Amino acid sequence: HLMSTPSPTDDRVNIGAKLMHGEEYGGHAFWDTELFCLPFFTWVFPQTARNLVRYRGHLLDAARKNARDSGYRGAKFPWESADTGDEECPAWTVEYDGTCYRCYVADYEHHVTAAVAYGLYDYALVTGDEPLMAEFGLELLLETARFWVSRMVWNDEKKRYEILQVTGPDEWHEPGDNNAYTNRMAKWNIETALSALARMQAKNPDLAQSILRRIRLTDAEMAAWRRQADAIYLHGETSLIEQFDGYFPIPDAVITEWDEHGMPRMPAACVGKKGMQRPILKQADVVMLMKLLPDCYDEDTQRINFEYYEKRTLHRSSLSPSVHALMGARLGLAEHAYRYLERSAYVDLDNNQRNIREGLHAASMGGTWQAVVMGYCGLHLNEQGEPAFAPHLPPQWKQVRFHLNWRGKKLQVTVKDNQVSAIESI
Ligand code: IFM
After folding, report:
1. DSSP one-letter string for 122-175
2. How do residues 349-365 score in pLDDT, each as one tens digit?
3. Confidence (pTM)
């Protein structure tokens, strides 16, 4: 199903959240593409991945216009994207019972911009696609960084930069100040853009210079970026991380019951409460951050946050279980995390989100692949930038076999008894 919409020959198509199988979300592309689906293509079908990344490259000018229209600088990608790159997310939706609902996600969910940058950067890292970085990749990283710099405000009392009125991946707390995921990804975006620029300056100074001239980026502006990235508020990088300012004081409640599909039920104390009145999350937020930037958090911190937020996450978005499956496997909780893998893999077969009438779940499919290959089999890039594995197979699996495309070579990888072999295949 994942293969049904992106194309190895067409860089003007993307992956609708419901693939070709339903009308929900109008076929629009979300952050689902970069963070959930793209890794599968990057590692297995890099030509298709390249086209998915180029899709965003074509829409860089539209993203610059989106930023300007919202009063920011740089490039701000839309929450929902289609051919023009304009924001396609409706401000109002009509619900099944005929009532109208004011939808704020496009107003507050700015984290999609960091996701686009992350997907591109990860694709380039894995494939070594320098021509793409030269063509528009570096420019996209710099322009998205510029957006984040303009999105921050200085808090003079606390002597730090902040991002106010924003929603992270968990859409049930909308909006909050200093969402930990968004602030950290903004910092990542700025720092990554600057280090990618430094690498290009060392390798191809003329090209780097011409990109800087084209986007009128000066040393003085970049020095200010560095200061802002250093001074953005992060809720700490060790121990329990507060999802956003004011999350911890919300009267606490934890999940204690599950339905027949193993999906958590809303704690009784929270029934009838909404948004900021309850601590229950729709989907992984801090845990998602640790999945994306594992090197920024030590193992204890990852475990503490996984265990805390797991008890408060309802997984009402199909994007959520695969993140918990992957993180659980990485943290050595392979058996415990297996329930999340099942929820992700069977989302459409079991209809465990109860919305199959609206279409299949693309992000769940990409997330399931990542949970198996990157979580249970532990695929990652090692310090030399080569594929490496740290498997944690659950006891009920004897062996896992899958294919990768590593820089033009087709590899057949077998993980058995936690030993890995990779042979070139035709
Ligand atoms: O992008 C997701 C979002 O995170 C949760 N609601 C559905 C969107 C499309 O899948």
Report:
1. HHHHHH--HHHIIIIIHHHHHHHHHHHHHH-EEETTTTEEE--SB--S-TTS-S
2. 999 999 999 999 999 99
3. 0.98
